[in-house]
């Protein structure tokens, strides 16, 4: 690792000030991505701003027809929360299938979403559920938040505070993992929202999360696996490597969408 300063602010305002004053400083939540990058000298921040001491960034609550989760809330807390299990069971189940026990007890929802790894699960949930991202200065809709591989709408010094999920009437998620690395090769989250609209989000298959609008239109007319049976995902632009071609991942999108529908009921 390189030398760096270490800060542990007690408030959002203090954290934002440090990050604004030093553009090369980086916030750290669970550290599941940043710490390995530091270890392998792939990142060289001048300072780390530890967010773990900021109580405002943690917690889960239901606010009317929305589920609000603090950015520093850990995967395990989401997995075991009765509030999440009641409001969005698919989200609790997703959290319980992230990484391993150590990752679930250290990693945070906000850290995962801010990192926006193409194989991460939460971006698919946020996109399909039409989540809103609350930062220290504004609110960002999911369709604008994700901007490609490891890129988001967050500006330098801007801090993700909480994620608001509209509570759906139905939701389900299914994914195919690489049998060796366990990273997602293709995952699909399907959701029917309270206003009757349907959203389908795909992760792992491409360079970033994206919506499958053809499936959305079909499912809005008929919420069933039969409705999407004839829809084929275009492989153009999808990932292809030694573990699976773009065409294979395109096929997986269809398979995972049907499994997600079965989960949603």
TrEMBL record:
SUPFAM superfamilies: CO dehydrogenase flavoprotein C-terminal domain-like (SSF55447), FAD-binding/transporter-associated domain-like (SSF56176)
InterPro entries given in the database record: CO_DH_flav_C, CO_DH_flav_C_dom_sf, Diverse_Substr_Oxidored, FAD-bd_PCMH, FAD-bd_PCMH-like_sf, FAD-bd_PCMH_sub1, FAD-bd_PCMH_sub2, Mopterin_DH_FAD-bd
Top-level taxon: Bacteria
Keywords from the named record: FAD, Flavoprotein, Oxidoreductase
Chain ranges of the FAD-binding PCMH-type domain: 1-170
Entry keyword Zinc-finger: no
One Pfam family in the UniProt entry: FAD_binding_5
Record bears the keyword Secreted: no
GO molecular function: FAD binding; oxidoreductase activity
Protein name, entry field: Xanthine dehydrogenase family protein subunit M
Annotated organism of origin: Roseomonas acroporae
């Amino acid at each position: 690792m390189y030398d760096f300063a270490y800060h542990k602010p007690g408030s959002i305002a203090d954290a934002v000030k440090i990050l604004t004053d030093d553009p090369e400083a980086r916030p750290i939540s669970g550290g599941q991505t940043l710490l390995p990058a530091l270890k392998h000298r792939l990142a060289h921040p001048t300072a780390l701003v530890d967010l773990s001491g900021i109580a405002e960034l943690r917690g889960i609550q239901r606010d009317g027809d929305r589920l609000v989760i603090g950015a520093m809330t850990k995967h395990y807390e989401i997995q075991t929360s009765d509030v999440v299990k009641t409001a969005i069971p698919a989200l609790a189940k997703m959290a319980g299938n992230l990484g391993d026990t150590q990752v679930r007890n250290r990693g945070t929802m906000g850290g995962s979403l801010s990192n926006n790894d193409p194989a991460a699960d939460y971006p698919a949930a946020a996109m399909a559920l039409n989540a809103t991202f609350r930062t220290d200065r504004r609110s960002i809709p999911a369709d604008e938040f994700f901007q490609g591989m490891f890129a988001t709408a967050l500006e330098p010094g801007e801090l993700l505070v909480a994620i608001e999920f509209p509570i759906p009437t139905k939701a389900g998620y299914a994914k195919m993992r690489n049998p060796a690395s366990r990273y997602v090769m293709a995952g699909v989250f399907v959701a029917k929202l309270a206003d009757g609209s349907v959203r389908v989000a795909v992760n792992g298959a491409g360079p970033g999360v994206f919506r499958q609008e053809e499936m959305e239109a079909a499912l809005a007319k008929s919420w069933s696996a039969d409705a999407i049976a004839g829809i084929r995902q275009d492989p153009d632009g999808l990932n292809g490597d030694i573990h699976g071609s773009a065409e294979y991942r395109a096929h997986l999108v269809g398979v995972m969408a049907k499994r997600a529908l079965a989960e949603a009921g």
